[in-house]
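Researcher: Let's walk through a ligand-bound prediction step by step. First, I give you the protein sequence. Second, the SMILES string for fe (ii) ion. Third, you return the three-dimensional complex as structure tokens. Ready?
Model: Ready.
Researcher: Here are steps one and two:
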Amino acid sequence: MKFDEIERSTVTQSISHVNLHYPRKDGDGEAAALLLEACGLVRTQEMDLPYGGTFYRFTSNAHDINYPNNIVYLSPYTPQTQAMIDKARAALGMDTADPDPVVKAFHEANAIDPERELHVGFLVDSLEFLEQVFLKLKDLEANDPRFADRLKIVVNRALPGNPEIDERLDASPIYNGVTRYTFGRNGVQAFCATDLIVDGPLAEGLVIEFDYVFPGYEEHIMSVSEVTPETARV
Ligand SMILES: [Fe+2]
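Model: Step three, the predicted complex:
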């Protein structure tokens, strides 16, 4: 801690909410809402907005839905934001067959690692739950036309070397055979990149991350990040 002027020893602080957006296209709002539900969030509110579209509130506090943290708000871009993004994307040729070279380079760099740009991470205390969520997302992508080509799944195994964890992941329906690894130990990650929810630089889509930490380890993926030979992706 480099800034020590504020007394906070009796204060509890957490992230209360993130405010996400879906593009202003017919159907994307409800598909984006269904995606968040498939990710385990509880939909607690829907409200029509004066500038069009639907505002949603979700929470990951499934056992206390009114609790004022762990909230995800979801709404369409305002017309003004959408207009600005449309103009910027057009200037870069982003939705054409011949985009500006910086766009191609941006996509290639981000394809290496889903965590390089804006993303939202959820911590769960059940690996089985995480596995169920991602089996469901794969099923939606394969079988529900609302999600076809709009969900991209990537998963990272725990760094190898812990026999108990390695054995559990070898038996996992989503981690068996995976050779991508986390930037840390004793945990796993799973990512769903989607363009049903946008935000980030030029509305290129959002990455939803799930994290699970194996219990009993002081050092884990959420406590210390490290770059190892297995994770030196450039
Ligand atoms: Fe992350």
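Researcher: And what stands out?
Model: The CA atoms of residues 121 and 209 lie 4 Å apart. Strands lie at 17-22, 42-48, 54-59, 71-76, 119-124, 151-156, 187-194, 206-213.
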